[in-house]
Amino acid sequence: MRLAIPVAAALALAGCASAPKRTAAPAQPFPDAWYGSYAGTMLVDMPGRPAQSVPMTLEIAPTEDPARWHWRIGYAGQPVRDYALEAVDADAGEYRIDENNSIVLDARLLGGVLFCHYAGPWGAYTVRYDFDGETMKFDLVSTAPEATSTTGGAEGVPAFDNIPVIGWQRAVLRRVP
Fold this sequence. Notes:
Layout (H helix, E strand, L loop, with lengths): L6 H8 L21 E10 L6 E11 L5 E8 L5 E9 L4 E5 L5 E7 L2 E8 L2 E9 L3 E9 L5 E4 L6 E4 L2 E12 L1
Antiparallel strand pairs: 1-2, 1-12, 2-3, 3-4, 4-5, 5-6, 6-7, 7-8, 8-9, 9-12, 10-11
């Protein structure tokens, strides 16, 4: 007899995931509590390449539309990316980030953390924004476009693809006046 373990529990048991320590919930709802300008250094790691440090900024601000917010991201030496965060179904935590260039990415608010997951011609990406009241933590994990191998699939066990992680970008951004 096999014991079925939910994937999240299995990852936690295997040491692949852990429960982050959360501060008290913000007094204001998302994204109002996140309004502001943030700055810090983004670290970029890719296999076989030296790590890079890149200055990064993020500005979140209201617009005249109560279901749309400015979401401006800046990286040193590049023009600011003037995106917009849009509510699809705020009660269900459904949002999207409109890059204003025909790319609109679905986003989900889970446990006070905003996640996006999308795939393109160069691979798949998982993006995470986590605001703790003082700092904005940003992570982007990129994976290869194709699996390198498949495991499982025997004796009633589901098959899983191994898809290599090919990059990790992360930053701790601090609110600036």
